[in-house]
Amino acid sequence: MVALLFPGQGSQFVGMGRDLAERFPAARELWREAEDVLGVPLSRIAWEGPEEELTATHNAQPAILVHSIAVYRLVAESLGDVQVAAGHSLGEFSAHVAAGTLDFATAVKAVRRRGELMYRSGEARPGTMAAVLGLADEDVERVCREASVAGEECVPANYNAPGQVVISGDVAAVERAIELARAAGARRALRLNVSGAFHSPLMAPAERELAAHLASIRFSDPRFPVVSNVTAEPVRDGAAARDLLIRQLTAPVRWVASMRTILSSGVERFFELGPGSVLSGLLKRIDGTKRAQTVGTANEVEALIGA
Q: Which residues are catalytic?
């Protein structure tokens, strides 16, 4: 039994997907389709940069989705019995494209819009995020509560691995939380280079506008379940998928719980499809006996399909 993992923002890098497009015409055509849909030179941004332009959330999100789905389409027949999928934040959209919940063009437009809305929310109410390493979840949650004062909020945003939690919120509250986390014994607590307080209440305006955008989009029932970031439970219904992708913007990514849901189902093989190997590293920390096979480069694709 196989599980598919799809990476989220932060996995992008200049040059991503270029070798795939040069070696596989189907991958090249997918980038072209995304550019036709969006009206922006996405492949140029992804392949040539500059890094600041690719990292902009409205560019990084569609670029990662295109890379992930290009890989998925190339290797789909070689994956075996896919039982379940999950994606980290943005990656949940990629997972739903692979599962047939959303068509590719619709998803590319949706994640471009999602990125624009997230950026705009960050401008309207500036926020930030920080990684906290070496504290238990409940200690991070306590730190966030203590740091949230005078209308300034800080919340856990990503439960990525045991002892690895990302927090999010108003700049002053996150700065207080960093100091409190260090005082509580965190091994590290450091600000991240992001344009807003993602997966926090500060994203409420983006959540409302994303809901309006997704309201008119057709969501089919997925061919295989996709584990939701919000609930850490499998989603088998298109309407539920829409609702959870909306709620995800202000809710924490429950990645540890999501992986444990998949592990408890008896999955034997994991594939991380798209740029980088972040999720493979997190899986190893969640369960030291499991490894994910990363498939993102042309060589990795060829090794899997036996080309």
A: 89, 199
